[in-house]
Amino acid sequence: MRWVPKIADAAQTEVLAAALLSNACLSLKDPTVASTLARLLVMRGIDDSETAERFLTPSLSHLHSPYLMSGMKVAVDRLDAAIERKESILIYGDYDVDGTTAIVILKTAIELCGGSADFHVPHRIKEGYDLRGDVIERAAAAGIRLIVSVDTGIRAFAAAETAHRLGVDLIVTDHHLPGQDGMPTALAVLNPNQLGCEYPCKALCGAGVAFKLAQALMERRISHRDQAPLLKSFMKVVAIATIADAVPLTGENRVFAKLGLEALRSAVNPGLKALLQVAQIAGRPLTSGEVGFRIAPRINAAGRMDVARDVIELFSVKDAARAREIANKLDQLNADRQAEERRILEAINLRFEQDPALLDSFCLVIDGDGWHRGVIGITATRVVERYCRPTLVISRDGEEAHGSGRSIRAFHLLNALESCAPLFTRFGGHAHAVGFSMPAANLPELCTHLDAYARARLTLADFEPILDLDAELPFDEITPDLFQALRRLEPFGMGNPEPVFAARNLRLMSLPRVMKDKHAKLKLASQPSNEELSEVAVLTAPRCHPDSSVLPRVHAQSSSARSRMPVTYDALGWRMAERIKQAELLPGDALDIAFTLDHNDHPEFGGLELSLRDFKRN
Q: What local confidence, expressed as pLDDT, does residue 333 receive?
């Protein structure tokens, strides 16, 4: 793994650090801590005090006006008229976290405003992704005259024409990138990425776009005094979708994520409470990681393994017992998803073992008969993580093939698919995540084309994993004050990664300890800066107390002596036991490490600790 230090302008950092120290709301006392925080902000493009304060203290007042989004007034006027005329409204969503939560958001808002809304979530296997003309035809036959898509529809040209032909007004809300053929024919299209839209936050997820429509509708139909509490309530669900969809947690998305995570501590919705309980994270502060790895997979499991309607019922049900029943079902579906994912990964790994030449490809295209289409996307993610190459995983079903792709930093996967568009029945997505359908007969041509396309744009160096380093952080600068300052940068995610630090020339104090067969713990100490201590002194040096305020004051001479004593911390290597075992580390080895800063809340053994990202023996 290649460590790449990030660069921050020194002059900007110095000016911002002074501003942070003088800001009473931030309560920063230590200039070193302020300087570190300023450096991290500058590297995130935040180099003035006003922008920094908005970033560190998001609030509802930072939400943009929905009407900055093209098409918003037309969409709100039509929804408002439908509510006034007591029309039935159909919300057409997607089957993943983003799509199902978008349905929940817009359906709830319409009902709060006095309207009535039904919904349709396509079955992943039977219907596939995107708007379908036959569903629109059935809706029209049932008297529906207004359909709103959420998290889908930006490339649904045929379905949009069907709606137009049948006299059904279609409002498309989506965040996926439009195609080269422009916009579908619709009454209104809400998508910050459409040509000519000047909405400030281009990176909204689908539920984020649906929320902006809900926000505008509630501004029109609900009294001003009730709007703030309602918006805070919606933040919980918007935060889940925003984090799960891996959009950048900057700008308005940061407001969603920060306020939503805070509100999740006091969830009152029976379904949401049951989901948090099943995930074993109820009643305490949540991180974006816990949402991404514990909540989102359970919601996603409904659409991957069964029917996504369960998610809408979960968030709509009032009975706690029924909510718990649905949450337990989602939990079991997630376990089933994990088992199916392991099965496919084992088949893929076996294929690579039997034919190592497959890994010579610059873009991996892997197909299998009957692979579950609900898990091939996350399987592609796992392959990219292991082999660091753009990857398409494809499920063959007779003459049809359905695939999902994930990519590396240096490769725009949607552009790659655009370059061979005739091979597909349909496709869409983002720079680093795509989905598609195609005739199975086209698979060999796809494999050849994408490998050639990737070879023209990538080098072998692009396949080397990269670890971005935010700063060098000696052990004696790791303090509780620094940890608290870093927490102000949360929530972490795309666009706002958790800071990764490097510490050099550390001494391994004891043999690595393996935990639960896959994790490892290293006890590491800084080396004395002035004169070498004896080996006995190194091995018997006490661990730095996690709260420096309880340490006794010492006179100047003792303080100088103390500065030469090693500072010791535990470093936890999650899923690194095998690698650490292969390294054959021994007490006394000198290491450089890359790590993030964490806190162990154990009542007896708690305190600051390090989460190991990588290590190198000196």
A: 94
**How many C-alpha atoms does 357 have within 13 Å on its Cβ side?**
1
Distance CA 522, CA 501 (A): 16
Across 343-488, the runs of DSSP E, i.e. the strands, are: 364-369, 391-397, 400-406, 426-429, 433-439, 466-469, 471-472
Q: Report pLDDT for 607.
A: 87
Domain boundaries, the chain: 66-224, 355-463, 500-617
pLDDT bracket for residue 551 (50, 70, 90): very low
- 361 pLDDT above the threshold of 50: yes
- ∠ CA 422-389-418, nearest 5°, is 20
Beta strands across the sheet bearing 169-173: 116-120, 88-92, 146-150, 169-173, 188-190
Give the pLDDT mean for 391-407: 96
Residue 62 makes CB contacts below 8 A (sequence gap 6+) with 54, 252, 255
Distance, in Å, from the CA atom of 187 to the CA atom of 166, rounded to the nearest integer, reads 13
Task: Determine the pLDDT at residue 558.
Answer: 42
Q: Which tokens in the block code for residue 330?
A: 């989602």
Q: Please tell me the class of the 66-224 domain.
A: alpha beta
Average pLDDT over every residue of 66-71? 98
Domain 355-463: CATH architecture, name and number where available: Roll (3.10)
In 3D space, the residue among 511, 516, 518 whose CA is nearest the CA of residue 576 turns out to be 518
Residue 151's nearest CA partner among 90, 93, 197 is 93
236 φ, ψ (degrees, to nearest 5): -60, -50
Q: What is the DSSP string of 280-347?
A: T-TTS---HHHIIIIIHHHHHHHHHHS-THHHHHHHH---HHHHHHHHHHHHHHHHHHHHHHHHHHHH
In this prediction the pTM is 0.86
Element at 89 (helix H, strand E)? strand 88-92
Q: What class does CATH assign to 500-617?
A: mainly beta
